[in-house]
Design a protein that fits this description.
Layout lengths: L3 E5 L3 H10 L10 E7 L2 E7 L1 H5 L8 H7 L4 E4 L2 H14 L6 E5 L3 E5 L10 H14 L5 E5 L2 H10 L4 E3 L21 H9 L5 H5 L3 H8 L2 H10 L15 E11 L2 H21 L2 E12 L4 E12 L2 H9 L11 E13 L18 H11 L6 E4 L9 E4 L19 E13 L6 E6 L2 E15 L12 E9 L4 E7 L12 E6 L2
Parallel strand pairs: 2-4, 7-8
Antiparallel strand pairs: 1-6, 1-7, 2-3, 5-6, 9-12, 10-11, 10-12, 13-14, 15-16, 15-20, 16-17, 17-18, 18-19, 19-20
Helix pairs in contact: 6-10, 11-12
């Protein structure tokens, strides 16, 4: 099932201008509009959020806008620069999915089939897309649906900033949207409103023939594209420096064995191209163009730059089951969308030194099955506070040289956050005699401690005198727990003196 993301950039021209200006850009709270000359008139062609909040709209006369907002900043519009920057942004979006295209004048469309699991699912991917743009100073709304038309409509006219339509959704999700959600030309939408049509549902319920006879085929085409009854191919953007190879077939192919055979041939050709430039692939995109013009995309990532034909072929062939050939595949394209310099390492003799086992192949297989975010290592951080003493790093990240503290043992598993427990304990330095956790009372048979952990005053002022006393406690069943008391047991300013369970040993 195809899944398409539509990104709507409501203030793209002004956002682009602010990004280009950098530190010299006007403050975000200062209204900014772009004007364009139409005949003898100067009209507002774009307005940022502050200008819109002040009542300015696209199409308004520039003189009227200046009269309404005295401190307004006016600059000349540059549609060509906007379109070029949108193309560059679409090329940057290739890191999220193999099939990306600009959707002028203010959008980007992404076919995410086969790539969403690499980003933690569709919801996490949408959040990452919008969040990355927001950090770059670009306002965005996003929606994902089964078709380009539906995602485009929900992104621009939906109730949520990141709409997530269910798989195989029906037309009821779109019925209440205005006519403009169908991507109809302005005059055509105005004519339909004169006839009493207001929403998408009003048109979907009408017979197609009378509408086509009076208004032409555009209305029926847009409705069928939105509902998935008519294919709407996405013309994927291809950067000029992209390393890719292509295979065209005189007769369409569809068998999994045939697809696998040609994947192997494409990988050999791609590795030859990579070797010519001294590069190794970090990400591979396989795009299979079907005879019905519906692309099927497969994306795999590699932990380290590589030109290993066998490994790359295996990773791609593991994804063949996600390719739906339909009536056949007529074009296969394999691209190294991320390539980095590949350093040759001299093989050392075992008489000189022991070579370390190479586990990057295993990491590649696991990461492409469960997603890169789900595969990581835990590295130590120089902090006595347990929840701050570790961080996630990439599975292939180099060793930082930091080590774990060895003076006190640490539990194998920390809870996501400390959970309060009811205890019986003698203050100030004695361990609990018993504690109740999650409704179960446990009697302590052995205990060790306290290990005092002080707050990190340089992090925040509230930790200046904060104290935790940690105890290792073993119950009658032999289970070992890590508990702490907030405070030193004597002074109220050091903590609440409540008890918490923070981890479990074993």
């Amino acid at each position: 099932m195809a899944r398409v993301v539509s990104l709507y950039l409501p203030t793209w021209p002004t956002d682009r201008l602010r990004r280009k200006a950098g530190v010299t850009a006007p403050p975000p709270e200062t209204p900014l509009v772009l004007v364009m000359r139409t005949g003898n008139r100067r009209l507002v062609s774009a307005a940022d959020a502050s200008a819109q909040a002040a009542g300015l709209r696209v199409g308004m006369a520039a003189a009227k806008a200046q009269a309404l907002v005295p401190d307004l900043i006016l600059q000349d519009a540059d549609p060509i620069a906007d379109a070029e920057a949108l193309e560059r942004l679409a090329a940057w979006m290739l890191r999220f999915a193999p099939v990306v295209s600009a959707d002028p004048p203010d959008g980007i469309v992404v076919d995410t089939a086969g790539a969403d699991h690499l980003h933690g699912g569709e919801a996490a991917m949408l959040d990452g897309l919008v969040g990355r743009l927001a950090m770059s100073g670009v306002a965005a709304r996003a929606a994902i649906a089964d078709t380009w038309g539906a995602a485009h409509a929900l992104a621009r006219f939906g109730d949520k900033e990141d709409a997530l339509a269910p798989v195989a959704h029906d037309r009821t999700l779109l019925r209440g949207l205005p006519l403009e959600a169908l991507r109809l030309a302005g005059p055509l939408a105005a004519d339909l409103r004169l006839l009493g049509f207001r929403t998408v549902g009003d048109l979907v319920d009408q017979p197609r023939a009378p509408l086509t006879l009076r208004f032409g085929p555009e209305i029926a085409r847009r409705i069928e594209q939105m509902l998935g009854l008519l294919a709407e191919p996405i013309e994927a953007i291809r950067p000029d420096d992209l390393i890719e190879v292509r295979r065209l077939f005189a007769e369409p192919i569809g068998a999994a064995e045939t697809i696998a055979r040609y994947i192997g041939k494409l990988v050999v050709q791609l590795c030859e191209r990579l070797e010519e430039q001294g590069l190794g692939a970090r990400r591979l995109d396989l795009i299979c163009q079907r005879v019905d013009n519906r692309p099927q995309a497969v994306r795999v990532s590699l932990a380290m730059p590589a030109r290993d034909v066998r490994r790359m072929t295996r990773l791609l062939c593991d994804k063949i089951e996600t390719i739906a050939p339909g009536w056949g595949i007529e074009v296969m394209t394999l691209a190294a969308t991320v390539a980095e310099p590949l350093e040759h390492r001299q093989m050392m003799s075992s008489l000189v030194e022991e070579s370390l086992p190479d586990i990057t192949g295993l990491i590649d297989v696991l990461a492409n099955r469960v997603g890169e975010r789900a595969l990581y290592r835990v590295a130590p951080v120089a902090s006595d506070v347990p929840e701050r003493s570790l961080m996630r790093v990439a599975a292939t990240a180099p060793d930082s040289g930091a080590s774990w503290p060895g003076h006190w043992p640490r539990p194998a598993r920390l809870l996501p956050r400390p959970e309060p427990v009811e205890t019986v304990a003698l203050l100030p330095d004695h361990p609990p005699v018993s504690f109740t956790w999650r409704g179960v009372r446990r009697r302590v048979r052995r205990a060790d401690g306290p290990e005092r952990v002080f707050g990190e005053w340089w992090m925040r002022d509230a930790e200046l005198v904060a104290v935790r006393d940690y105890f290792q406690c073993e119950d009658e069943a032999g289970e070992r727990y890590w508990l702490y008391r907030a405070g030193d047991g004597e002074h109220a300013e050091t903590g609440s003196h409540r008890w918490f369970l923070h981890g479990v040993f074993g």
